[in-house]
Q: What sequence folds into this?
């Protein structure tokens, strides 16, 4: 297991290097000079040239890349061209906002998706099964951005149950400690702000959760159906164990592996889906941070932002891979 | 000589088996009600796209400023938008754009992905290593992020959105075909084809590729669904179709400002995206169950 972990970690290195190279070239292929963008259209040629030199953008690409890579190894993600603040300093609040949103979405997706899948398999061909699977099918086909707008229209504008957008009430700002507001408000013991944070989280996280929830429900159902046909499940039933115990203890434990794969993959996809959700709900997350940076040709922010999201994606997949062995003793890594 | 005849017979038998697999697949597909519903939805939108000028009561860009943000009525069954344009007509014409992007982007991914997958799987060694690593790198990015990056480089337009979607889906097809090639090339009839001196190109394009068609069709149909959503997402972010094109995602983005006054500007384009995607998903699921019963969920 240990040697497998090391081996897997080593395979991540060339992928990360390749990714950094792809991002580096992609960003530089974006038309327009960042110096010109920063100084505006009325800037003199000399001023643009001076700033281009100051930013190191007149150096050969390999020098820029090596400098960038060297910086990365030291944890230096560069400075935002727009704000002048170090990206490593600036990025965390945005990353935390996306993390909080994605975790809330995954929590909803797993709790509802897994249970809906289990109940559908348990009562196969019942009305619950049909309704849940039709909903799952619709859920998989749902464009997040449309669902988000529908939620805003129904639950925020018409029913006024939840706020339309944002992460906090601007009249009652949250004092950030970790920038994960659910945790921050709990740490401060501020119940009002805690409830407010949850209220702001509901609509975007439900929108973001819909597709993974549907996929998890379908996967859990098919995986459970397969396991529930096994001999040992029949034996457990014959021994007089209650159906609840058989389903939730014996079947689920063996059916969860493919579900776990899907959960891992979906967690990565959530990070991508978050960009759309963040746009609709004006959620100040990493997706919007990168998206806005593209408009300003803010190279360091785009580069580091995409790289960090992709790194998280890779590491989630790695963790899921390693978790298999912990859950399923049949899997042995050599 | 006898060996040669046996090898040829082996290849012919393999081709006959393939034909009967398609027939069996078609019989299974016809029995699958959900798949038929999906195909019906897809056909409906294809007809809508083809006959848009006959179906749409107004020109897609006809502006009647006196009729701005009108609620659904007899004259405008889906209502009008902020320029007084008929939303029903725009949704009908929008089907052309979405199906066009969905189909051609997937065609691009299938052609390039299959070619790379075949080369990687058949020739192996360093070619396989290089191509597989490129796929790994591409798959390491959340797809929409990569698509945004590509469109940022190429410039926002419908054509560039199509290219971006095609590019991000290449590794999915590449990996699929690679794994098929790896298993097919061990088959007896391929060894037989090699033994009778068949060229690599003939083996690849006459035997391996046709035998990989089923998963390509299944994956392709499901990928059209994803591509339509991705195109709409790029349109929604302002990186896809540009005004005044009636692209569904762009129509949704424009509707954001009128959510309170005119929710119909948001409801119908979204419904159109969802139904088209649902149609392709149901059809893809049906094709998967019909063409590859082992993959049945």
A:
């Amino acid at each position: 297991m240990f040697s497998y972990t090391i081996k897997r970690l080593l395979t991540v290195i060339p992928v990360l290097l390749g990714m950094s190279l792809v991002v580096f070239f992609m960003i530089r292929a974006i038309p327009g000079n960042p110096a010109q963008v920063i100084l505006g259209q009325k800037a003199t040629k000399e001023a643009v040239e001076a700033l281009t030199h100051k930013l190191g953008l007149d150096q050969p690409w390999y020098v820029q890349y090596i400098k960038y890579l060297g910086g990365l190894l030291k944890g230096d993600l560069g400075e935002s061209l727009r704000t002048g603040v170090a990206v490593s300093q600036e990025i965390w609040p945005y990353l935390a906002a996306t993390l909080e949103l994605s975790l809330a979405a995954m929590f909803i997706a797993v709790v509802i998706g897994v249970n809906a899948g289990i109940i559908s398999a348990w009562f196969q061909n019942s009305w619950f099964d049909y309704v849940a699977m039709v909903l799952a099918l619709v859920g998989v086909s749902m464009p997040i951005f449309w669902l988000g707008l529908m939620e805003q229209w129904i639950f925020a504008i018409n029913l006024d149950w939840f706020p339309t957008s944002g992460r906090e009430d601007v009249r009652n700002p949250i004092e950030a400690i970790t920038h994960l507001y659910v945790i921050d408000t709990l740490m401060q013991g501020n119940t009002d702000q805690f409830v407010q944070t949850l209220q702001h989280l509901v609509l975007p996280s439900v929108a973001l959760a819909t597709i993974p929830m549907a996929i998890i429900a379908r996967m859990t159902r098919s995986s459970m159906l397969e396991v529930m046909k096994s001999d040992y499940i029949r034996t457990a039933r014959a021994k007089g164990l209650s159906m609840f115990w058989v389903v939730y203890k014996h079947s689920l434990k063996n059916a969860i592996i493919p579900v776990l794969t899907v959960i891992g993959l979906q967690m990565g996809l959530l990070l991508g889906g978050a960009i759309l959700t963040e746009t609709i709900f004006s959620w100040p997350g990493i997706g919007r941070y990168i998206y806005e940076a593209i408009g300003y040709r803010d190279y360091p922010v785009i580069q580091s932002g995409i790289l960090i999201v992709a790194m998280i994606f890779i590491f989630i997949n790695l963790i899921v891979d390693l978790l298999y062995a912990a859950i399923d003793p049949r899997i042995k890594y050599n | 000589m006898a060996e040669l005849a046996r090898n040829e017979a082996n290849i012919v038998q393999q081709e006959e088996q393939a034909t009967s697999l398609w027939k069996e697949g078609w019989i299974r597909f016809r029995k699958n009600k959900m798949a038929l519903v999906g195909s019906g939805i897809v056909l409906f939108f294809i007809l809508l796209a083809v006959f848009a000028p006959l179906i749409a009561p107004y020109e897609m860009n006809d502006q009647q400023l006196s009729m701005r943000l009108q609620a659904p009525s007899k004259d405008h069954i889906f209502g009008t938008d902020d320029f007084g344009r008929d939303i029903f007509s725009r949704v009908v014409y929008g089907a052309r754009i979405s199906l066009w992007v969905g189909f051609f982007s997937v065609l691009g991914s299938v052609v390039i992905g299959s070619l790379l997958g075949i080369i990687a799987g058949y020739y192996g060694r360093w070619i396989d290593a290089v191509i597989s690593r490129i796929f790994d790198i591409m798959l390491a990015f959340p797809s929409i992020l990569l698509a945004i990056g590509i469109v940022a480089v190429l410039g926002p337009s419908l054509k560039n959105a199509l290219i971006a979607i095609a590019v991000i889906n290449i590794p999915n097809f590449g990996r699929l075909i690679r794994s098929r090639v790896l298993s097919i090339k061990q088959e007896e009839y391929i060894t037989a084809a090699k033994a009778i001196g068949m060229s690599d190109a003939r083996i690849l394009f006459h035997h391996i590729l046709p035998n990989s068609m089923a998963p390509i069709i299944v994956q392709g149909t499901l990928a059209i669904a994803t591509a339509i959503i991705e195109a709409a997402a790029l349109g929604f972010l302002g990186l896809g179709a540009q005004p005044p094109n009636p692209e569904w995602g762009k129509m949704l983005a424009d509707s954001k400002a009128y959510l309170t006054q005119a929710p119909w500007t948001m409801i119908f384009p979204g419904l159109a995206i969802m139904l088209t995607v649902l149609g392709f998903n149901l059809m893809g699921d049906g094709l998967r169950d019909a063409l590859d019963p082992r993959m049945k969920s």
